[in-house]
Amino acid sequence: HNDNAWFSDPAEMVFLAFEKQAIKGGETTIYALDNILTDLEKEDKQLLNDLQKIQVVIRKDKSGYYFNKTSVIKGEDAIYWNYYRIEKQDNTVKKMCDKFFNFLQSKESTNSVETFKCQTSDILCFNDTKLLHGRLAFYAKNMGDRILHQSMWHIND
Prior knowledge:
- With 157 residues, the protein is of the alpha+beta class.
- The chain has 3 helices and 12 strands.
């Protein structure tokens, strides 16, 4: 997913500061847009075309203020994806989203996706429009066993 997919002019830079990392699990996954494009070009050109052409609405809440109407992939420059925030009222959009969701799941354990564990005191910085990121499950027995701080910065003019 992207953290800011529902904004039409999102903060690109995301900083994640791990005040305390869980002892078990919590690895970060990164799927770079370049790898996504390469994999889709090789494996499913129709899905790539749909992701670049079909407009979706990505909405954070029902207020109407936080939403983005966009294609999931903007050429080779940006990706806007959050499966659970895309409105799927249209069957074409629903099919495309489900197909891409399944495609992403099939890539989780491949060389296309980087997996690494940040440690306590680590800071991770990335351009939110150039990759999809996630987190593997973690074990926390008590509240505060994992503490993560996030900051987002807009870098465009």
